Amino acid sequence: MGDLYFNELSVDFSVSKQPKDKEEAKKLLLDFIKSFLAYRLSTGLDELYILSENIHSIRAITPSLADKTDFFEILNELEDESLIDEIEKKLFKASITETFVSDWNPEYGFTSHIAFGLGAASKNKSYSISYCTDYINSTSGWNTPIIPVTKQELNEQGIIEESIMSVNHIANIQHVFVDHQIWKTCKCINNSPSKSLLPRKDQSKIIPEALFNTQWNQFYSEVQTYNVSQIKILGEVVALVNGWGECRSKDNRLTFNAKNYYLAVDTQHATYEVYIGTDSHQGETKFCTDVVDQTKQDKRRKLDLLN
Questions:
Q1: pLDDT band at residue 75 using 50, 70 and 90 as cut-offs
Q2: Which residue, 117, 145, 175, sits at the end of a domain?
Q3: Mean pLDDT confidence for 89-95
Q4: What string of DSSP letters covers 9-25?
Q5: Distance CA 174, CA 270 (A)
Q6: CA dist., res. 1 & res. 135, Å (int)
Q7: In a domain, 303, yes or no
Q8: How far is 285 from 180, CA to CA, in rounded Å?
Q9: Please, what is the average pLDDT of the chain?
Q10: CA–CA dist 280, 292 (Å, integer)
Q11: Cα–Cα distance between 218 and 207 in angstroms, integer?
């Protein structure tokens, strides 16, 4: 699992509905960027590209607009309106600079159309990413985590063999965190927990939105309305994408380790209990910050881990 493959059919307006105006194009682009950032966070990969069959195809969400609005003009507006920040914009722009070589054997198709991006994702066992446009003459569209494609391949006898393949696909942040749960195999490793418990805390702001359609401030103002399993999954996702490895405690408490630091999930308050070693309790911190509240320190607390 690595680079994403862009589904060019999501901006092929013989297949998909084109945005009716600039605001719709801006919303589609914002969701596309957030899907990419969610995937990048979940994989833990710092260098990641959205590969396309044509280097300009990702920008094709805007040329159909009547006012000839430029793709990068809309991208700048998203930053100006604080919908993305400068770093997110730079990461996204850097990610769309690479292409892949089309392969005609095997050939992949979706309905009656050749599918380069979907096919490349299938062949390379990776993920495809789309704009969340709808199909023409249909109420459905690319908002689905799995897309079936037809694979046609010439065998050694020169006969075409046809099969149906399922492509892992993302078009929104829920596909990343809920449907595919890509964060479970995150490659991020926190080698310096003493400097930062949650080095990707700023990027992690997308997690409560993906899981519960909320933001951190709202989540903590309503924390008593969330059940134990919801708080556990939130604590688990945040820990894993910030480079912590899960370990087992004798009391079955959800616990994570990085170097000689430990985080134990407090499901009542949606916090991490912070330990240096297993017998030095430091206090607690919320899932959205790495500032430890030392007023919560309790020297009597110990961690009892399974070997």
A1: very high
A2: 175
A3: 96
A4: GGG-TTTBPPPSSHHHH
A5: 21
A6: 28
A7: no
A8: 28
A9: 93
A10: 13
A11: 13
Q: Which two tokens stand for residue 296?
A: 């919560």
Q: Is residue 183 part of a domain?
A: no
Say if pTM beats, i.e. exceeds, 0.70.
Answer: yes
- If one counts the domains in the chain, the total is 2
Where does a domain end: 175, 204, 230?
175
Selection from 181, 241, 202 nearest residue 45 by Cα: 241
Report the run of H or E that residue 266 belongs to, with start and end. Answer: strand 261-266
Give the distance from CA 222 to its chain's centroid: 25
**Average of per-residue pLDDT across 134-151:** 90
Same-domain pairing of 152 and 267? no
Please state, in angstroms and rounded to a whole number, the distance separating the CA atoms of residues 201 and 197. Answer: 9
Asked, for residue 84, whether it belongs to a domain, the answer is: yes
Q: pLDDT per residue over 204-222, tens digit each?
A: 999 999 999 999 999 999 9
Decide: 50 and 96 in contact? Cβ < 8 Å.
yes
Rounded CA gap, 257 and 95, in Å? 31
Determine the Cα–Cα distance for residues 251 and 266; give it in Å rounded to an integer: 13
Tell me: do 226 and 287 sit in the same domain: yes
How many other C-beta atoms lie within 10 A of the C-beta of residue 198? 25
The answer to whether residue 230 sits within a structural domain is: yes
Range of the domain at 261: 188-296
Which residues are within 8 A (CB) of 262 and not within 5 positions of it... i.e. 6 or more apart? 247, 255, 256, 274, 275, 276, 277, 278, 303
